[in-house]
Every structure is written in C-alpha cells, then in structure tokens.
Fold this sequence. Notes:
The chain is an alpha/beta fold. It is built from 11 helices and 14 strands.
Amino acid sequence: MIFGTFxxxxxxxxxxxxxxxxxxWSPSEQWKVVVEVTQLAEExxxxxIWVYDHMHNVPVPANESIFECWSTMAALSQLTSRxxxxxxxxxxGYRNPAMVAKITSNxxxxxxxxxxxxxxxxxxxxxxxxxGYDFDSNAxxxxxxxxxxxxxxxxxxxPQSTFEGRHFSVKGAECDPKPIQSPHPPVxxxxxxxxxxxxxxxxxxxxxxxxxxxxxxxxxVSVLRRHCADVARDPSDIVMTWSPDxxxxxxxxxxxxxxxxxxxxxxxxxxxxxxxxxxPEQVCEKLAVYADLGCGGVVPxxxxxxxxxxxxxxxxxxxxxxx
Length: 323
C-alpha cells in the first residue's frame, strides 16, 4: 500500500497555535511546524507528504495562515531527501495549464524525481470568487481539468506542444527541463463524480482518489472499472487511493474522550464509521476492508494536528501491517 500524509499547512486552521495556549504562533513559527512535521514523516517512513491547493480556510475563511501549494512544494523539496511530494489536489482553474507543466516539471527536477502530481476540477466557490476566478459549471470545470492533464503530459514529453481544446490552447509551447521521472510523474486525479470525473480518471490517471464508507467506495470502484472498459484501459493500471481523516490513540477510552474531531461538525458515530478512527488494531481492521475492495493507498489527514501522536502511531503500528 501507498502511505502518504498531509503537512499541517494551515488550511484547516491547525497552525493557529496549541489549543492549551493563549500565545499564537507567528508565521515563522508556523512554517517551522510545517517543516518539522514533514521531516518527521520522512523519518517515520511515509511514502509521501501532501498539501492542499487552497488560499482560504475551511469550513469558512478565517484569516488564518495557509502556506501556498506550489511554493511550499518547492521549499519542502529542498528540506527532504526521500519522501515524495504531492498535492491533494491542485485546482485546474487556478493556473494556466502550460504554466502548470513548467511548475511541475521544475519541482520534479529539483526534488530529484519525487513529484506526485495531483489535479482536480475545483469546488470551493467562495475562494474562486474571492480570487477572481470564474466558477464555471461542473461539466466545464471537469473539462478544464481533462484538458489541463492532456496539455501537461504533452509538454512533459514533446519538444514543442500545440493543442487546441474547448477551454485551453497552446501553440509551440516548450517546457524545459523535462521531468526526470520516466515515463512521467504519476498523475493523481481527485474526485468521484461518476459520469464525468471518473471517466477522466479512466482516460488519464495513474492514481485515483475518492472516498466514502466501504459500500460507497466499492460502488465508485465498480463505476471506475466500467469506464476503464469503455476506454480499453486495464483498471489495474490505476492505483485507487483514499484520503480520510485519521485519529489514532492507544485506548478506546482516549478515543471516546476526544469525541468527534470532524472539521465539518459530523457526529461522532458517523465520523468514526467513515474514517480511520480508533486504536491501532481498530484502524488496521478498517483499512483491511478498503484494501479488500481494491484500495491501493491512503493519504489521510491527521485530525489532531499540530500534535504528532496520530502521525507517529499510524506509522509505527498501522503501516507495517500492510507492507
């Protein structure tokens, strides 16, 4: 199984400072936390470290620090040596596709070939409006994502690229240096829309990423496999991954005392049922169910950040059971 984890980047206001302290962290102190947790994840044996591509906090904008996706990637590439670098997921509507090709290629080179490129159609409408991006229909945003993938993969491999699509075009675009991974960095496409998004996954992705409880996950898997059959793609070529919350404690008493850690206010019972929440043994049992359904990797969000207790327990007591 692939095991990634997120850096505490600030999107979920986890960098405001310890809950038991009235002293807020300065931006420099916040960045130190990002770096220290990333380096700890590398030491603990995680395969990859991930960041979100957002500028406003959730569940509502809160004027709390969020470190920008691609500049964070560039910095972390120079502060680590082994761990892979991913985005869950970069938003197709936020950047010109040719520029995305250039950014991703550079990150792959300067990291020594450690880029995992995540791409999605985007959804945070408030953020779109705040930054002046057009929030088009679902179909158009998914179309933009698909064309972005086509352009980027073309520019990663061709000396000059020309593409004329419905949403984007390039004419003789060059992208040098090329990525150093062969044939190219893995392409992760996030989203579980059954008619359009999973079709794009079948056509273009090396990794999928969608969620849901076991029944919902199994259904998405079956839909993706049907799309693969339609485009003559072997579904085993696509590693299916999941990005739940994770919250691990040594005892059931500690889990119960913590209650729901859902950022969205989800009740404890349903939050625990749909995420990797529990003791190490309970989390292993849950993860085994998804593995049996075809899940080939997880990139969970540590719900107790800035604490690293879950990060460490998951690495030492869960990951070894699946390797």
